[in-house]
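Review form for a predicted model. The reviewer records the input and the model, then writes brief findings.
Reviewer: anonymous (R2)
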Amino acid sequence: MWFVLALLSAIFAALTSILAKIGIEGVNSNLATAVRTVVVVLLAWGMVFLTNAQGGLGNISRKSWIFLILSGLATGASWLCYYKALQIGEASKVVPVDKLSVVITLVLAFIFLHEKVTPKSVAGCILIGVGTLLMVL
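Model under review:
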């Protein structure tokens, strides 16, 4: 099931890029990011109430709060940079560079989460990096 959800995530991310590139035309990138964020917030809280998960809010640990807030700040910074890049660059070049986050995530997971480094993961990182360079040059 995780693979289906991850694949759907990729499809929605692709749609996000194309729809954003069209929608951001003539709009300040920060304003566009704010509009997108409001929609995401409404959707996320809608799902919380739809699944009756709001009761778990009080059970979130202090550590989880800190890391969720930091993750939110990183997401916001990412979106602000992404929308500005998308506004001034070509989607076919901005999106592959943005997807270098896969390589960066793998490296950070190896360092901070002590996830296993395998020949397959190293090869994948190299291929993604080289593929990104080929797409943007």
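Findings: The two ends are 36 Å apart (CA to CA).
Further findings: Helices lie at 2-23, 29-50, 62-88, 91-98, 101-112, 119-136.
Recommendation: see findings above.
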